[in-house]
Design brief:
Blueprint (H helix, E strand, L loop, with lengths): L20 H19 L2 H6 L3 H6 L5 H4 L7 H22 L1 H25 L11 H14 L4 E4 L3 E4 H15 L9 H16 L1 H4 L3 H29 L8
Antiparallel strand pairs: 1-2
Helix pairs in contact: 1-5, 5-6, 5-7, 6-7, 6-9, 7-8, 7-9, 8-9
């Protein structure tokens, strides 16, 4: 059972500290993609999440790349500010690799939920962009680990973390019924739910698709090497000088 800092830790001050390793990489990647899409807007169509293209054209990379595409300066600014404020301590608590796994689990999971929701109830041609799904997962994990920590909600109102996340979760839930509102509240709500499940459920916490892919690739390489070696042995045994050693 992993151990976490007390839920009654000191108040979360604005600016938790210098950028950690994962946050430097994530914020840097977001800024690079933002600049690239600003100067080459066509990239937004390629990297943004469009359910019709994910399903119809198998553009599965969009489930991850949409998190790095933003609609404007304030969009990326607020997302990266929230990531810095609430993600730094999570990375310090969990470590870089685990934090990155969690971040992409929330973001990609939210993307999958967006695809399903738009196909079932909305318009699958509508694009979704932004890191909000992953950011809301970070908020949910912070609230689950440190529920009674006091923060400045919306930069002005002192509030316990659990109440703040409860409010933004309720707003996302109420707004999620309108899939054509222009804001992907499904991604927000999905990120929140995945974030809470990750902290509370050992099964979700142990879910590591990247690690599974790496293990599968290593097993495939080993099996391929064994097969090549067996073919080599058969050729050696069937040769004219098979009795010579």
């Amino acid at each position: 059972m992993p151990r976490y800092p007390s839920a009654y830790a000191s108040s979360f001050s604005f600016g938790p500290g210098p950028l950690s390793t994962a946050l430097k990489a994530l914020i840097g990647a977001n800024v690079v993609v933002f600049l690239a899409t600003t100067f080459a807007p066509a990239l937004t169509l390629l990297l943004g999440l469009q359910p019709a293209e994910v399903v119809g054209k198998l553009y599965v990379w969009q489930l991850a790349t949409y998190m790095f595409v933003h609609a404007g300066v304030f969009h990326i600014l607020f997302n990266m500010l929230a990531l810095w404020m609430f993600g730094t301590e999570l990375e310090q608590t969990w470590g870089t690799r685990r934090f990155l796994r969690f971040y992409f689990l929330c973001g990609v999971g939210a993307g999958v939920c967006v695809v399903l929701a738009n196909y079932l109830f909305g318009d699958p041609t509508l694009p979704t962009i932004g890191a909000s799904g992953a950011i809301y997962g970070v908020l949910a994990a912070s609230a689950a680990l440190w529920p009674d920590r006091v923060i400045l909600a919306f930069f002005f109102f002192p509030m316990k973390m659990k109440y703040f996340v409860g409010i933004v979760g309720a707003i996302s839930f109420l707004n999620s019924w309108n899939l054509n509102s222009g804001v992907s509240d499904i991604a927000h709500l999905s990120g929140l739910i995945i974030g809470v499940l990750y902290v509370k459920s050992p099964r979700v916490r142990g879910f590591d698709p990247l690690g599974s892919l790496q293990a599968s690739y290593r097993a495939w390489k080993l099996k391929r090497a064994k097969r090549k070696f067996q073919v080599y042995l058969r050729k050696q045994r069937s040769g004219p000088d098979r009795w010579v050693h």
